[in-house]
Amino acid sequence: MNRLWSHPSLVIGLIATLVFVAIGLLSLVWTPYPIEQIDIPRRFLAPSAEHWLGTDNLGRDMASLVMSGAWTSFLVAAIAVAIGVGVGVPLGLAAAAWGGPVEWVVLRLTDFVFAFPAVIVAILITTLVGPGAVNAIVAIGIFNIPVFARVARGGALSIATLDFVAAGRLAGLGNAMIAWRHLLPNIMSLLIVQGTIQMSLGILAEAGLSYIGLGTQPPATSLGLMLRDAQGMFLIHPWLTLVPGLAIVLIVIALNIAGDGLRDAIDPRLRQGNPNVLA
Amino acid sequence: MSLLDVSGLSIRFGNTEVVSDVSFSLQRGERFGIIGESGSGKTLTTLAIAGLLPDDAVVGGTITLDGEPLPRAERAMARLRGERIGMVFQEPMTALNPLMRVNDQIEEAIRLNIAHGAPQTKVGNLLEEVGLERRHGERFPHQLSGGQRQRVMTAMALASRPDLLIADEPTSALDLITQRKVLDLIADICARRQMTLLFISHDLKAVAALCTRVAVMHDGRLVETGDAMSVFSAPKQPYTQRLVAASRFDFPPLEHAPLGGNLLEVDGIVRDYRQSGGLFQRHKPLRAVDAARFAIASGECLALVGPSGCGKTTLAKIIVGLDRATAGEVRLEGRTYHGSDLPKDLRRDISLVFQDPFGSFNPRLNVADSLGEPLRLEPGLTAETVRQRLVESVEAVGLDAGMLERYPHEFSGGQRQRLAIARALVTRPKLVVLDEPVSALDMSVRGEVLALLARLQADFGLTYLIISHDLDMVHAMADRVLVMEAGRIVEEGKPDQLFARPQHRLTRDLVAARLPQVA
Amino acid sequence: MILFALRRFLGFAVTLLVAALVIFWLLDLLPGDPAQFILGINATPDAVARLRAQMGLDAPAHERFLGWIWGMLQGDFGMSYTQRAPVAELIWGRLGVTLPLSIMAMVISVVVGLPLGILAARRRGKPLDTMVMVLAQTGIAIPNFWFGMLLTLLFAVTLRWLPPGGFTPWDEDSGAALRGLILPSLALALPQASILARVMRTALVDVTSQDYIRTARAKGLTMGEAVWRHGVRNALLPVLTILGLQFAYLVAGTIIVENVFYLPGLGRLIFTAISERDLILVRGATIILIVTVTATMLVTDLTYALVDPRLRERSAP
């Protein structure tokens, strides 16, 4: 633990991320104003003591919207990561532990899913069932699956050549036990680092999908949706665009710094670029 | 005046001094060897001479070449290094640029030194000098064997006709026969070109074969320097004495129980690997083991030797149940299996000690969990029995029961290998397969581990199957030796006879490649 | 090498076929009858049935699927029933915006990202490195469409250098068309250039510690020369993989960014099609996107093999 704290960027990134998460959580129980409260006469107000970040075109309190929107973004990204981990990691571990045809199928599957950028998946789902936050979750989640499957398989393969795995097999452990007892614990750090990367990509992807109307729908709000709402008037009221955009940038930077710090703290050899492949 | 003079050299990284007060000098034409174990600072010393230390290293002391201090400017140092110092490194697999043909890489070394008025030479001549053919020059590094790559490295080192050749563990990644050939090549070239050699190795015999004067390095300091003959025959420092003893495998032989009947019979084992030809090509399968047939008597210590890739490890994997034979069968006390179908109740009778003590323990499990894993093969043991068995086996290998709660990273390589042996003993097996049991260990602890193995065999009446390429170790340990080549067992005999009068060509080559004992 | 290429090409074809199957199956599940849609609610069941037969909708699913694939192979993507025009023609018109935009963004990100990455790696730990990495860290975090809005504010509204949006077709005024794509391609390129700079820097730093760099230095090269002659090409291998993925996702990314600039690209075509439930058009457009993504990955794989001799011989994937 001390080792982790000796990385200043990790500490800064983690604290910043936790602050944003805390603000998002707070929005569940308290926001300065209810976000549904439309008050047309009080629209386009500049920031003031009453409205810290001003009001939007419908007179809603921007600070409240950002709080609530940040929470949606986190939630969407986190559930998408959970989907990616939940499906991808077992697939990757199975590929590494069983090898042979299982591995072949998993690899072809991940190749195949890589051919569907999140935007295309979202388009297909929207065509099927109409727009909604769930679309964004599923689309980003599907995109996360091959990412985690590859990371898990790659990490597990390098572990699987080590002798303690052979020792486990000699002790009569089956593939599933090998994966659970010997492979998974040793790739946890890889998965945590990839998780933070996919969190930040997920937040960006959610913003993009909501912005083009395939993601979160009113009356709920997300940072991307705020940008969509502000789209028509951003030349006249740029403030409405700047606030949610900056919020996204800050959250993603916090996550990325935390992720880079984690990677350096856990294993300096893992320094590889993160392919930002969101659509 | 000496060619190279190192005095008071120290190297620091941050607050840790890794090399302290190292001084030696090399006369022109001399062959000087530095002996040291991993982490002794010997490689850093050579890097300091070549000006190749990482940027964060702080260097003290002076190094002079022909009386001139090494230039401080990077470019001047680089050119001096190119012109006057040739270098051959340990890792033949990674030391060449994978994307460039061998010819181009050698050509680069030649071209670089034309610009500085160095004597001209041709790639073809260099290839010939290091014993390669011209067609090898057309290849990419991954198309060459380890020995060939090391020859390419040597050719590049010779391109500028250097005065000084630095060879840092040039053969430790190579197999026995190739190792000998590369060592002979270096000796030849130094003699022909009147070149000064600085040879770095952990292998006393390699140093003894090449060098006239040696230094022993330990924990960043030179502990003993002198004439090769006198250092090896009458080492003064206790550390050197330990090294010399370990390299001779001097340990008191133990009487073990008389041999019983056949414990294990290997009958016509064949293992084919399907070549990955994919959809369009069909390769002939690669035959790793070809009709191997032998038996091990109860209480015997049998060794299986052969060059890398001869199939000895595959055969061992089939015997312990990690791989499956394509044809043939194995019988353990009369019960038949073919490899991975080894029945669960027989698995506890065979165990394996791995080569690499660092990879054989899961870093996330404590020692008790790792050691207790094989006890799953004996269902129905109570927690107390398990605990007692763990303590028993840890104490048998000379470690303390308190170590069971600790994690692998807290142990040294030698201790881990003891723990690996303890894990192999915990099910009270009959047969223990030892896959290169000491080759990943530092020289000074090899002796202890081998002595331990010999004692355990005597105490518990174990049967050993040793897989190794190290003839000296095998000579010291085994009752009987099998020689394997390309999947076949080509010769068999008692070590004394086999090594004195080898019959098969491979055995003769192996015995000839064996380096003479020091002093 | 030919075998390697053949195998990859086969994989490409199979991926596309399965992707087509998935898309066909998904969109076939949908409730809603195109024939009914075209004729309106007041049409007689008889008329609807006739039109269904005419459109081939009454054939079994596998026949319709094979018909669709066969048509596409001949360049026939079907008729859009909302726009009353061949789908192939509609898509082709929109690709005239989407493809140049993606290519421009790619070129910008390579031209900016790679040199910055190399520079940062060479000045590792120096202020320049820190600056580039801070910029890259920020660049990665900025949503491209939001950056597009900021660019519009600055260059179109405040400075009035470039048009804020809209698109002049290439055959009308290619200069104006090009100008219309500058801001969108910059917006798309920013995150990609940041990623490239980071990947390039990491790859080069990694390569610097490789044994063959030490060998090159032993030959008489300085660190800088060794990295330049031996390191960069090796470091480009991981970068190449990223480049392939990036182009693929840039094409998809244009769908989002073209909204900011009101560009008539593939994205807008798809959104109109979705809202009008023009399934034939959605189907054609998505398959074109997937072909682009998959083809890019194929080209990356082949280039990789051309650069790396080790890969050419390895027969298994």
Task: Please tell me about this protein's structure.
The complex is a heterotrimer of chains A (279), B (519) and C (317). With 279 residues, chain A is an all-alpha fold. Chain A has one domain: Orthogonal Bundle (MetI-like fold), CATH 1.10.3720. In chain A, helix 3 (62-98) runs antiparallel to helix 4 and helix 4 (100-114) packs antiparallel against helix 6 (133-160). Chain A has helices spanning 2-5, 8-29, 62-98, 100-114, 118-129, 133-160, 163-170, 175-211, 223-230, 238-266. Chain A has 10 helices and no strands. Chain B has 519 residues and is of the alpha/beta class. Helix content of chain B is 35%, strand content 25%. Chain B has 19 helices and 20 strands. The model of chain B has no long low-confidence stretch (mean pLDDT 88). By secondary structure, chain C is mostly helical. Chain C has 13 helices and 2 strands, in the order ααααββααααααααα. In chain C, strand 1 and strand 2 form a beta hairpin. Chain C is flat and about 85 Å long. Chains A and C meet through helix 4, helix 5, helix 8 and helix 10 of A and helix 1, helix 6, helix 7, helix 8 and helix 10 of C.
Which key terms come to mind for this protein?
heterotrimer; A: about 280 residues; mainly alpha; MetI-like fold; 10 helices; B: about 525 residues; alpha/beta; Rossmann fold; 6-stranded mixed beta sheet; globular
What's the topology here?
The complex is a heterotrimer of chains A (279), B (519) and C (317).
Chain A: H1 2-5, H2 8-29, H3 62-98, H4 100-114, H5 118-129, H6 133-160, H7 163-170, H8 175-211, H9 223-230, H10 238-266
Helix pairs in contact in A: 2-3, 2-10, 3-4, 3-6, 3-8, 3-9, 3-10, 4-6, 5-6, 6-8, 7-8, 8-9, 8-10, 9-10
Chain B: E1 4-13, E2 16-26, E3 31-35, H1 42-50, E4 57-65, E5 68-69, H2 74-84, E6 85-88, H3 102-114, H4 123-129, H5 134-137, H6 146-158, E7 164-168, H7 176-193, E8 196-201, H8 204-210, E9 213-218, E10 221-227, H9 228-233, H10 238-247, E11 262-273, E12 286-297, E13 301-305, H11 312-320, E14 327-332, E15 335-337, H12 344-347, E16 350-353, H13 367-372, H14 383-396, H15 413-425, E17 431-435, H16 443-460, E18 463-468, H17 471-477, E19 480-485, E20 488-493, H18 495-500, H19 505-513
Parallel strand pairs in B: 3-8, 3-9, 6-7, 7-8, 13-18, 13-19, 16-17, 17-18
Antiparallel strand pairs in B: 1-2, 1-4, 4-5, 9-10, 11-12, 11-14, 14-15, 19-20
Helix pairs in contact in B: 3-6, 4-6, 6-7, 7-19, 10-16, 14-15, 15-16
Chain C: H1 2-28, H2 34-39, H3 45-55, H4 61-73, E1 79-80, E2 85-86, H5 87-122, H6 127-141, H7 144-158, H8 174-208, H9 211-218, H10 223-260, H11 266-275, H12 279-307, H13 309-313
Antiparallel strand pairs in C: 1-2
